[in-house]
Design a protein that fits this description.
binds flavin-adenine dinucleotide, 406 residues, FAD/NAD(P)-binding domain, alpha/beta, binds nicotinamide-adenine-dinucleotide, 9 helices
Length: 406
């Protein structure tokens, strides 16, 4: 009998976890497993704010895919997916095509720019290793340039962060630490540097625990961040932005605008499958309701939280849990027999956000609030756990965060 082709698109948290789980569950004779990813490495998307601020090197946040897959069971294809043809069960790549019997769509997120003029062209995004590295290099360049001009340009030292959600706040935590170092390195008075956060809601991290929001805001203000709350970013130009608050507009000059105000699913999903808010509203088995041989997980999938009536937020935590169910269901289908398909239930393990390498805040174990050093240790434990789950002890020891005292 012909072995079925399982094709997994994307080697992020969802796709790579599905692959490593499947290679344990299936034998070489059960299926042909193919993993497709743009790069030959996986990056820890949850560490990208550190790469983008320059507090860790890009290589710290990535590892080779071949180091965690079993080459005898999984065929890795480094290529870019350009479309998915569900009618003909084909995936079109920049450099070829792949036929599938079962497909896993785990292509992740991209920045949501909401049609705001100039953002795509002029703002920096924390979206992958390359965009994060470019932002870090850009900030370094302007600090280096500042003292090498007769007429000093303040806009070189004004850094705007659009969005005060988790990404914006974690980035600010890293950036404030990094800017202190850059000022020492480039002979710049720290008071010269303006770091401005623009958040459309009346508070940063709208909806999160108010005590923890206050902790994060006070910490960042003490480190020199200016918050513009209730202010919508309306336009981004190469030399500044326009914001609007209570109908009044204000221009802020800056050569660095970072857009961290939300994400959407990879736009390929909307082009190829039926979507709701750009994502596939999956069945409890994590299938596309219109194509039962297509599974969709991670930031490309939409699952409603029955308690709140709103979709679960897109996180690595949920992507990895979905991957386990997806791998189980695929293995069960491929092996035939009487196994039951699992229904996905989210097990919320909490939320912890960093404020640089030695400070953090969050909620764990249901409703326990943590902040400061304890939270920062917890954040590192969470980061290490994800490496352990994907690549085992070896990967965790090689790439993990163990600097809990500094
Ligand atoms: P991704 O991890 O985005 O992986 C998608 C993969 O697909 C990537 O390898 C990409 O290169 C590849 N790909 C994309 N397009 C193509 C294509 N056309 N062809 C081939 N390959 C392609 N979540 C948490 O739970 N905890 C956190 O602390 C946390 N911190 C975060 C910090 C930051 C700065 C950011 C930006 C996000 C954070 N998140 C966090 C959210 C989390 O990173 C995402 O929810 C998670 O990465 C989604 O996983 P995924 O597998 O769906 O996609
Ligand atoms: P988000 O949607 O959580 O936050 C975006 C913020 O930008 C919101 O506060 C929104 O009010 C604001 N905003 C939107 N448009 C704006 C505008 N025009 N002007 C000013 N402000 C505007 O997005 P995110 O922070 O990118 O996070 C994406 C996902 O990743 C979320 O699900 C988040 O939970 C997850 N994440 C988790 C962690 C963590 O657990 N530590 C860290 C980072 C990201």
């Amino acid at each position: 009998m012909k072995k079925p082709n399982i094709v997994i698109l994307g080697a992020g948290y969802g796709g790579l976890t599905t692959t490593v789980k499947l290679q344990k569950k299936l034998g070489v004779n059960d299926a042909n497993i193919t993993l497709v990813n743009k790069h030959d490495y996986h990056y820890e998307a949850t560490w990208l704010h550190e790469v983008a601020a320059g507090t860790i090197a890009p290589d710290r946040a990535r590892f080779a895919i071949k180091d965690v897959i079993d080459g005898s069971k999984v065929n890795f294809v480094q290529d870019t997916v350009t479309s998915i043809d569900v009618e003909n069960k084909k995936v079109v790549l920049e450099d070829g095509e792949l036929d599938y019997d079962y497909l896993v769509v785990a292509l992740g997120f991209e920045a949501a720019t909401f049609g705001i003029p100039g953002l795509l062209e002029n703002a920096f995004m924390i979206g992958n290793i390359n965009s994060s590295r470019m932002l870090r290099e850009h900030i370094d360049y302007h600090f280096a340039k500042y003292n090498n001009e007769i007429e000093k340009k303040q806009e070189r030292l004004n850094i705007i962060v659009g969005g005060g959600g988790f990404t914006g706040i974690e980035y600010l935590g890293e950036l404030t630490n990094r800017v202190t170092k850059l000022c020492e390195e480039y002979d710049i008075d720290r008071n010269q540097v303006r770091i401005i956060n623009v958040e459309g809601a009346p508070s940063i991290m709208p909806g999160f625990d108010p005590q923890l929001v206050e902790y994060a805001m006070n910490t960042l203000e003490e480190r020199g961040v200016e918050f513009k709350l209730g202010s919508m970013l309306k336009e981004c130009r190469p030399d500044g932005i326009t914001i609007e608050k209570d109908g009044e507009q204000e221009d802020i000059p800056s050569l660095t605008t970072v857009w961290a105000a939300g994400v959407r699913a990879n736009s390929l999903v909307e082009k190829s499958l039926e979507t709701n808010r750009g994502k596939v509203e999956v069945t409890p088995e994590l299938r596309d309701p219109a194509n039962e041989n297509v599974f969709v997980i991670g930031d490309c999938a939409l699952i409603m939280d029955k308690e709140t009536g709103r979709p679960y937020p897109p996180t690595a935590q949920i992507a990895m849990q979905e991957a386990e169910v997806c791998a189980h269901n695929l293995a069960t289908i491929v092996k035939g027999g009487s196994g039951e398909l699992e229904h996905f239930e989210f097990n919320n393990l909490g939320t912890v956000a960093s404020l640089g390498h030695s400070d953090a805040f969050g909620v764990v174990f249901g409703n326990k609030k943590i902040f400061g050093w304890t939270a920062s240790v917890m954040k590192k434990v969470i980061d290490n756990r994800s490496l352990l789950k994907i690549g085992g002890l070896g990967l965790m020891l090689k790439k993990g965060k163990f600097n809990i005292f500094g």
